[in-house]
């Protein structure tokens, strides 16, 4: 979808004089669909579906964010927010005001408290770089090119999470501009309800301009990946599942099968074939046990093995997620304990038996993720044992084939599914409808009540929306 598709999108009729007044108030760019630069300003990593706002504001700081929110409110327009734009598929908005935070970067490490204050548009690689000289690391995920704020406030499944819990469990304070245009410094003491709800409820209560997060004493991991030929998939998946039942909480890992396209961008041995990757991030204080721990996987005879000690600053090499934007369709579910029958259920519906999906993966959960955090928050589904993701690329297949293929896989996994989802991985066509499944039912109800206090008109609705509890308002639950 793009701005040259006038059938699908008619910008709201906003008085140009009022837009001019906003331009004068805001330091960053303010662009309408007619303006040059509009498409670049609204673009994110996910190309399958992008926001198409009436107005996009490239915020440079809190004052710009406040101006944009106040403008939206005074025109009864909804507000969307975008960091690095990895998650827009399924929830991208048509119309309204889009606030792009990518200019709002900055990290301040506090060595006495082992924390970092991070501005809204900052990516993990910046925090990792600033924390490393002090022997510290943030709870970043597989791809360090993601923005910190949305990842963290949606939960944040880190390479270190089985040892430390979700990134959202390690937030000290949050600066947020709420729907009334006020900047609030939110802590456990100042706004207990909002502090609880923002950590898990993410963008439903306002635009976050910065957060203060814990750093942990990690400098070096034992990690990397083992790559196996697709022909060994059943054996590798079975062994992997048995192995995850035995590993300590310091061991985080995942297993993925990928179908490689037959193009020169990939090594000849992989082109047009399937490979299974096991990704490892072992984060113990002493790494001596690592080689013994991974032995059962190595014994399967990988065709490539990059396991070894690596500084946390290079942790992005473990998953080596592609840094360039793409047309991606993804679906997800959380799973409980798995057995051989679950492996068969997945593999029977995957290449080479079927042409889709292109990628599917299991990430091992449990450990500290299964325990409540020191300060309660809204992140749900802590009982899940594995995260299942299935991903296909629209450059390589038709969406009308991809969706049924993903659905078939999720249906086959129903016997093992907990019915829950992690907000950060909800990107497919049903993302907007699936929001409840990210929360425990009582917590979802509480989120709607907090929403009714801080955003009664549902100004922040171009997202994984939690509507305000029924207050008689037309947009409420
Ligand atoms: C390659 C890849 C690897 C990934 N790996 C992991 C992983 O290991 N662990 C994990 O947990 N997740 C992972 N994810 C998922 C990722 O965390 C989410 O997609 C996340 O939302 C991406 O952040 P973003 O800034 O790009 O999001 P955007 O698409 O920019 O925004 C996502 C949502 O966050 C909201 N938002 C953004 N900024 C703000 C703000 N300042 N204030 C309020 N709301 C805001 C927006 O309203 C929007 O709805 C991965 C995704 C990809 C594509």
TrEMBL record:
<dbReference type="InterPro" id="IPR016169">
    <property type="entry name" value="FAD-bd_PCMH_sub2"/>
</dbReference>
<dbReference type="Pfam" id="PF08031">
    <property type="entry name" value="BBE"/>
</dbReference>
<feature type="domain" description="FAD-binding PCMH-type">
    <location>
        <begin position="49"/>
        <end position="218"/>
    </location>
</feature>
<dbReference type="InterPro" id="IPR016167">
    <property type="entry name" value="FAD-bd_PCMH_sub1"/>
</dbReference>
<dbReference type="InterPro" id="IPR016166">
    <property type="entry name" value="FAD-bd_PCMH"/>
</dbReference>
<dbReference type="GO" id="GO:0071949">
    <property type="term" value="F:FAD binding"/>
</dbReference>
<dbReference type="GO" id="GO:0016491">
    <property type="term" value="F:oxidoreductase activity"/>
</dbReference>
<dbReference type="InterPro" id="IPR036318">
    <property type="entry name" value="FAD-bd_PCMH-like_sf"/>
</dbReference>
<dbReference type="InterPro" id="IPR006093">
    <property type="entry name" value="Oxy_OxRdtase_FAD_BS"/>
</dbReference>
<comment type="similarity">
    <text>Belongs to the oxygen-dependent FAD-linked oxidoreductase family.</text>
</comment>
<keyword id="KW-0274">FAD</keyword>
<dbReference type="InterPro" id="IPR050416">
    <property type="entry name" value="FAD-linked_Oxidoreductase"/>
</dbReference>
<dbReference type="InterPro" id="IPR006094">
    <property type="entry name" value="Oxid_FAD_bind_N"/>
</dbReference>
<keyword id="KW-0285">Flavoprotein</keyword>
<dbReference type="InterPro" id="IPR012951">
    <property type="entry name" value="BBE"/>
</dbReference>
<keyword id="KW-0560">Oxidoreductase</keyword>
<protein>
    <submittedName>
        <fullName>FAD/FMN-containing dehydrogenase</fullName>
    </submittedName>
</protein>
<dbReference type="Pfam" id="PF01565">
    <property type="entry name" value="FAD_binding_4"/>
</dbReference>
